[in-house]
Write a sequence for this structure.
């Protein structure tokens, strides 16, 4: 499959037009299921009471914050190795979405921590490493837009995305490596999950819904970035053209 | 290899000829640390509790300030292109720049740090470990700083951008270094933290040459 | 209904978490689509030659 084909705005538009109904529709369906089951059709936890409903936004947001970052790192590698314009704009397009999910993860976690641990924030390994992830997203966005030529910003921030990828395993294993207040993973354990099935439905519905949402939004944003680049190029050409006309 | 050594020697000569730069960083280190003493108040117990953290945070910021010009001066006078195009491997030259930066900035900071620690009432059992953590940890600061400096060459908003890139990478160094000293003061073994600090240094040493060289290559295009 | 809104006494934590999530997700979608639409419009103007000369 020749991915370079999709780098041209017209081709990417065709691809995204074909995928958009599926991604946007999937997001709507799964988020609706997630909201319904998460808020109404699931029991309260025997230990955590109704606060367990915060989990249905908190945990999927946490997964997304890492999933989007993994995408960012892959796009960065592609931008550096193949100099693929689509990879260059993809990083710029998805970074704010990843930062938003990380922000949601931190805030909802804080709202869950207050009733459960009695504090909004603790400096344990999991919270600290997610906070660092948020900072890295901010640094990525600042670096990406810090240059006059967008290609330079794209490639510089791609290097940063790859360096920052070390944080992903640290986040994943922070609850196992350090004794922390944050509970260890109870869903992705290899043996039977330690979560009641009635809670898994809203959890996975929200996670799948967020993923479809991310894909749909990424398509829209990448298209916008491609248009923006094209607009810039046209304007440059026009300025160059008009000076030539004036000189003649 | 020789080219890398020559680069270290050149940078050291440059620093010796204009010691003002190093002295300014040292002055910043001492003054900023004193600010904390004023901010927290003169009670010895209160200061002793936070002395390690202050020394480390201020050393980290001093390091950050010195990084601003690490590659930018080369980019301004055009010698960056020569570095990139030189027959010697750019990865090695990056390490040479880091070594020179460490020798001219971090080493003087480490030498002065016991004085600052004394002013901040650091408990006597903490000094050796503090120096050890600085020796083990500051190379990581120089290395990660080099990545940030290379990435932000030619950027529109230099200084603040560099801080935004580099500080998240500095957090683990700070955490493990302070934890080691605190453990020693509390009568526990600082070794696990020191190992983590050293391991982080090895990680920094492995990725910095490639990341910074990649950044410099695309900056000089 | 009142019991549902009360969330077992944890209303002050559960509702902000969900509402904030909804607001963030909705605003990402809206700003992204809006930006695409305005860029499409701008590009059409420039390509039709009616665009302003910068």
């Amino acid at each position: 499959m020749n991915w370079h084909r999709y780098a041209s705005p017209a081709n990417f538009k065709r691809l995204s037009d074909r995928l958009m109904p599926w991604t946007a529709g999937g997001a709507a369906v799964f988020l609706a299921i997630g909201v319904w089951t998460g808020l109404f059709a699931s029991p309260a936890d025997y230990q955590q009471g109704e606060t367990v409903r915060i989990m249905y936004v908190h945990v999927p947001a946490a997964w997304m914050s890492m999933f989007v970052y993994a995408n960012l790192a892959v796009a960065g590698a592609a931008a550096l190795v193949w100099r693929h314009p689509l990879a260059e704009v993809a990083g710029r397009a998805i970074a704010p979405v990843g930062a938003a999910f990380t922000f949601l993860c931190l805030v909802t976690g804080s709202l869950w921590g207050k009733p459960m641990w009695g504090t909004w924030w603790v400096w344990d390994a999991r919270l600290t490493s997610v906070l660092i992830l948020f900072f890295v997203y901010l640094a990525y966005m600042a670096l990406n837009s810090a240059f006059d030529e967008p290609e330079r910003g794209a490639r510089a921030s791609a290097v940063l995305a790859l360096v920052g990828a070390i944080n992903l395993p640290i986040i994943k294993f922070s609850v196992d490596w350090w004794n922390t207040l944050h509970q260890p993973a109870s869903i992705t354990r290899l043996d039977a999950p330690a979560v009641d099935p009635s809670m898994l439905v809203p959890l996975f519905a929200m996670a799948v819904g967020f993923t479809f949402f991310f894909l749909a939004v990424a398509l829209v944003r990448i298209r916008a970035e491609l248009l923006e680049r094209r607009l810039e190029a046209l304007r440059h050409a026009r300025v160059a053209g008009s000076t030539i006309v004036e000189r003649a | 290899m020789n080219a890398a050594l020559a680069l270290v020697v050149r940078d050291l000569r440059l620093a010796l000829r204009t010691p003002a730069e190093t002295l300014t960083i040292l002055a910043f280190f001492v003054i900023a640390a004193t600010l904390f003493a004023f901010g927290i108040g003169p009670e010895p117990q209160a200061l002793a509790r936070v002395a390690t953290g202050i020394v480390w945070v201020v050393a980290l910021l001093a390091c950050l300030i010195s990084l601003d010009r690490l590659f930018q001066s080369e980019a301004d006078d055009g010698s960056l292109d020569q570095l990139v195009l030189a027959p010697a491997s750019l990865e090695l030259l990056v390490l040479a720049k880091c070594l020179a930066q460490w020798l001219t900035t971090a080493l003087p900071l480490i030498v002065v740090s016991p004085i600052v620690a004394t002013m901040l009432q650091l408990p006597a059992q903490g000094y050796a470990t503090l120096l050890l953590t600085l020796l083990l940890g500051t190379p990581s600061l120089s290395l990660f700083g080099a990545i940030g400096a290379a990435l932000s060459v030619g950027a529109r908003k230099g200084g603040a951008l560099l801080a935004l890139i580099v500080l998240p990478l500095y957090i683990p160094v700070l955490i493990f270094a302070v934890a080691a000293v605190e453990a020693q003061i509390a009568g526990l073994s600082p070794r696990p933290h020191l190992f983590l600090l050293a391991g982080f240094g090895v990680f920094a040493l492995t990725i910095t040459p490639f990341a910074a060289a990649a950044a410099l290559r695309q900056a000089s295009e | 209904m009142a019991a549902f809104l009360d969330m077992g006494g944890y209303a002050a934590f559960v509702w902000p978490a969900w509402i904030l999530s909804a607001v963030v997700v909705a605003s990402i979608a809206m700003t992204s689509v809006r930006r695409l639409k305005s860029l499409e419009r701008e590009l059409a103007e420039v390509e039709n030659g009616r665009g302003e000369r910068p």
Remarks:
- The helical segments of chain A are 9-39, 52-81, 85-117, 125-144, 150-164, 167-177, 197-247.
- Chain A has a mean pLDDT of 84.
